[in-house]
Amino acid sequence: MTGAAVQGLAAGFVGNGFQGPGGSAYVSVLSDTPFTSVSLKSGVVSFEAAGVIGSTRPISVPEPASAALFGAGLLGLGLVRRRRA
């Protein structure tokens, strides 16, 4: 990393970095392209990865099927209660 440049980013990635106190370097990378691994390499004696945060987009949940099953269960409980009364 030199200055504010992040080297070796693949296509579809946006990155930025800056040098902090004591010569520490901070990097931020954003991507709409899915990836499964991150490789961090350093040519200096000490290297630390702190605050690595990953996030994913929410996936759809088949709620109509769950709601129908729950409703059928409630209907069944209502019928059982009505027969006992």
TrEMBL record:
Domain of life: Bacteria
InterPro entries named among the record's database cross-references: Ice-binding_C
Domain Ice-binding protein C-terminal: start-end pairs: 60-83
Annotated protein name in UniProt: PEP-CTERM sorting domain-containing protein
Source species: Muricoccus nepalensis
